[in-house]
Design a protein that fits this description.
Layout (H helix, E strand, L loop, with lengths): L1 H45 L4 H5 L13 H5 L7 H32 L6 H10 L6 H13 L7 H9 L2 H11 L4 H9 L4 H9 L4 H16 L3 H6 L7 H7 L10 H34 L4
Length: 293
């Protein structure tokens, strides 16, 4: 009897400790989620205020009367919200398609052509580009595009899309390298060319990585503010630049609450895309980023 009590006491102690650890983890998660959501909650609430309420002191957390008209005023013809939203969507969509195609081709080449002598060295160069900050290449790229008279056009995004993305090339390479060699051998016996093997066998089985690459690149281009600011003009710029500069009163003072309402509408497509694509992002990252040779 005493031996049974001695066995049960450590077991009960361990279960109590695990329960405490779970409770602490839940509390930590709640705190983290709250801290992450605070800016979003502040954004939503402030977008429903008047500018007078936003600038008044002491600060009131909730608006006296929600100003839903802020969201309708965003579409005033003076601001061309829908026009620049269409430009942003077209630019992000076209760039993402080109980037996925070029990155998948490069990843396939790095994964399936071991006979190329400089393959590993070239891949090391591509992988090293992941850790180089983009700000380092801003000035050289701008000088090149300006001398080619491509500023003020969308050609920089086309060129970036054709060049591919180092991180996406890495993801495709890690995914394609897992495919058994027997699939290629069987396809070659059936008379398939190298491109047909890529198009008919590898690409249809890479849907998680394709979805991940497309979503990540789309969100990056849609949310980019700096590149459109320096490469495009006021007529053909993207929505991010318009939101940062267009919503002002006749005296040139910013209309803060109207701008925040535009920001809410601006981030909504990215939230929707991520909500529907998060499963593919996780699946693509797990199946490609953690496997290597």
């Amino acid at each position: 009897m005493e031996a049974q009590l001695q066995v049960r006491q450590p077991t009960s102690h361990r279960s109590t400790r695990r329960m405490r650890e779970k409770i602490l983890l839940y509390i930590l998660m709640v705190v983290v989620v709250f801290l992450v959501c605070v800016p979003i909650i502040w954004l939503l609430i402030t977008s429903l205020k008047k500018d007078v309420e936003y600038l008044s002191y002491p600060i009131k957390f909730l608006p006296a009367v929600p100003q839903w008209s802020n969201y309708t005023n965003v579409f005033d013809p003076r601001y061309d919200f829908l026009k620049h939203a269409g430009i942003s969507a077209g630019l992000a969509l076209g760039s993402s398609i080109l980037t996925v195609i070029s990155s998948s081709l490069a990843g396939f080449a790095f994964a399936r052509f071991p006979e190329v002598k400089a393959r590993d060295k070239l891949f090391a160069i591509v992988a090293s580009m992941i850790i180089i900050p983009q700000i380092v290449t801003v000035i050289p790229q701008f000088i090149i595009f300006s001398r080619l008279h491509l500023t003020g056009t969308y050609w920089p995004w086309v060129i970036w899309g054709i060049a591919g993305s180092p991180i996406l090339i890495f993801l495709f390479r890690q995914f394609f390298i897992r495919f058994p060699r027997e699939l290629e051998d069987a396809a070659e016996i059936d008379g398939c060319s190298t491109f047909e093997i890529f198009w008919r066998i590898f690409l249809p089985n890479a849907k998680p990585v394709i979805a991940t690459a497309f979503i990540l690149n789309f969100v990056a281009v849609w949310g980019d503010w700096f590149a459109p600011l320096i490469y495009l003009n006021s007529e053909n710029t993207t929505l991010s630049v318009v939101i940062s500069t267009a919503y002002v009163n006749p005296q040139g003072q910013p209309l803060t609450t109207l701008t925040l309402a535009a920001v809410v509408l601006y981030i909504l497509p990215m939230v929707v895309i991520f909500f529907f694509g998060q499963r593919y992002i996780m699946q693509g990252t797990l199946t490609s980023g953690l496997t290597g040779r």
